[in-house]
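Sample entry (142 residues):
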Amino acid sequence: MRPLTFALLAAAAVAAPSARAQSADEQAIRQAIERHYFAAHATGKGDPLRGWFVPDGRMMSVQNGQLRVVPSETYIGGFGGAPAADEAQRRRRVVMVDVAGDAAIAKVELEYPAAKFVDYFQLLKVGGEWKLVNKIFNRQPK
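Predicted structure, serialized as C-alpha cells:
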C-alpha cells in the first residue's frame, strides 16, 4: 500500500467515531423537529413545543422591512388549537442539519398552499437533549 493511501485510510478510521456521533446527533435533531415543531403545526396546538423551545427563546422575522421579535412563549401561545383547514395539502421537511459539538443549526421548509416558509433553527444540546433556542424565518407568498 502506498504511504499516501495508508495515511488517508488511517485518517478516515480516526474520524469515523466523530462522524458517527454527529450522525446520531443529526438524527436526534431531525426527530426532535418532527416530534415537536412539525407536530405543533400539524395539530395546531403549541403544547408539543413547550419544554423544547426554551423559555427565553425568540422567533424573529422581517415584516415590512422591520425586525419582528416574538418571545417563544408568545409564539407557542399563538397556536389556534386545531389543525389548519388546508392541513392535508401542507408539507414539511428538514432540509439540513449541521452539528458542532453541543451546538447545531437546522433548515426547515414548510410548503403551504398559499406560502412557503423557510425556517432556520439554532439548537443547543442541554442535559443530553436538543433544545430550540432561536428561530428565524422567511415567508414567501405563492
